[in-house]
Every structure is written in structure tokens, then in C-alpha cells.
Amino acid sequence: KNELLGQEFQLNWAWISLEYDSYEINETEKYLNIKLSRRGYLGETSFVSVKTKNVTAKEGEDFGKHYAKQVQFSPGQTEAYWRLRILNDSLFEDSEEFEILLQEPVMAAIEYPDKATVTILDKEDGEESNLKFSTKISYTCTQL
């Protein structure tokens, strides 16, 4: 029997989260910058994996497929940024969505918001879908 009487057991832990649970970005912007926050015990280096999940937007077509798979927090660091390329295609399309997920923490735990929905807006397409006439048009219908 092994006992350590009178010994205090303490866990020091950091908590990592996204700044928001939803983001919007115009398709013409080149990069989406996501802020991650860390709180709690900051005395050790912590890591968290970042993954994307296709919804209506597709990796490699609407947003980049090459991005940092992990974000590191050095001792004392409370904020870090993750960056993703947004691809501007020439397709006429509505807004599209994908998700960002935090996973696999090291020396930390994940807290809400741990995932976010990103909406890619295509404002230029919305402008092209409007039909405008600069002059008044009139017509007469006659019955045959």
C-alpha cells in the first residue's frame, strides 16, 4: 500500500477557444484571420489542432487546402491567430459555408466556442443578379 498523507494534488490547466462561433467574409478578401484565446494556467506551452469541414463551401475550391494544422501558445501567451486563404472564383453563386473545428488539445482543454461556421459572401454576384432599366418602357397589347 502506497500512501502520501498530507500531500496536495493540483492540476494546472489552460483553456483554448475561438473568439466567435460564426464569421462572415467576402469572397474577394484574400485571407480569413481567426483569433484563438487561451486562459487559465499559462506556464506551459499548449497546442490545439485546427480542422475545416466542408458544408456548402469546398476545400480547394472556395477556401485553401493548405493551412496550419496546429496552433501553438508559448508560455504566457493568451492570443494566437490562424489564417486561411479564401479563393475568389468566377462562378455565380450564393453564400457558401464551411466549419472550423478545434481538436486534439495538448497541455490544455478546449472550451466553447470550439467550432465556428464561416459564411463566404459573394456580394459581386448579388449585384449582377439585379435587372435595371434606365428608361421607362411602355407597351400596348392588342387582341387578335
Automatic annotation (TrEMBL):
Residue span(s) of domain Calx-beta: 4-103
SUPFAM superfamilies: CalX-like (SSF141072)
Key words, A-Z: Calcium, Repeat, Signal
Source organism, top-level taxon: Eukaryota
UniProt protein name: Extracellular matrix protein 3-like
Gene name in the database record: LOC111087049
